[in-house]
Amino acid sequence: MAIERTLSIIKPDGVEKGIIGKVIARFEEKGLKPVAIRLAQLSKAEAEGFYAVHKARPFFADLVKFMTSGPVVLMVLEGEGAVAKNREIMGATDPAKAAPGTIRKDFATNIEKNTVHGSDSPENAKIEVSYFFPEVQIHAYEWKK
Ligand code: RTP
Ligand code: MG
């Protein structure tokens, strides 16, 4: 399988719960390498632009409010099949439906405050990575673990 990059976000609920390290550990343990990381406070415009595909959805305004309610951790994760692998590690959108051992099952509060975001396709991953990270801020390195 090809090496891919995907955008991961630890949402405000994850940052507030003090589990930044635990979430990143799950990615590292399962072969997803953080190649860019930044703590950020999203503006309303940034959050609206990022979630523009959901503009018509009933939960859009709440989602933007939530995503701007506190700092988030923006990350680029790299690895074999990183897009699908990240979604697997995250679990289903609704933590009540997420599989055991997934981040959302173990840490999320509800369908909105669900701790992590992950790009949902390789095409969207490219768009989402470049939305937050210029190429010069992404740094490849080898693991010796
Ligand atoms: P994400 O984009 O954040 O990785 O999550 P996802 O693909 O699993 O879910 P998506 O359908 O793209 O929804 C984006 C985010 O909107 C919030 N949401 N709230 N109140 C609701 O019914 C509802 N549904 C979705 C969640 O924060 C979800 O992750
Ligand atoms: Mg999504």
TrEMBL record:
Q: Which InterPro entries match?
A: NDK-like_dom, NDK-like_dom_sf, Nucleoside_diP_kinase, Nucleoside_diP_kinase_AS
* Top-rank taxon: Bacteria
The protein's matches in SMART domains, at most eight in alphabetical order, are given as: NDK (SM00562)
Describe the task this protein carries out: Major role in the synthesis of nucleoside triphosphates other than ATP. The ATP gamma phosphate is transferred to the NDP beta phosphate via a ping-pong mechanism, using a phosphorylated active-site intermediate.
Q: Which residues bind ATP?
A: K11, F59, R87, T93, R104, N114
Q: Tell me which family the UniProt entry assigns to this protein.
A: Belongs to the NDK family.
What CDD domains is this protein classified in?
NDPk_I
Q: Which residues form the Nucleoside diphosphate kinase-like domain?
A: 3-140
Q: Which cofactor does it need?
A: Mg(2+)
Q: Subunit info?
A: Homotetramer.
**Its Enzyme Commission number?**
2.7.4.6
Organism name: Anaeromyxobacter oryzae
Q: Name one Pfam family in it.
A: NDK
Can you name this protein?
A: Nucleoside diphosphate kinase
Which controlled-vocabulary keywords does the entry list? Answer: ATP-binding, Cytoplasm, Kinase, Magnesium, Metal-binding, Nucleotide metabolism, Nucleotide-binding, Phosphoprotein, Transferase
One GO molecular function term? kinase activity
Localization annotation = Cytoplasm
Q: What are the catalytic residues?
A: H117
Q: Which Gene3D superfamilies match?
A: Nucleoside diphosphate kinase-like domain (3.30.70.141)
> Does the record carry Ligase as a key word?
no
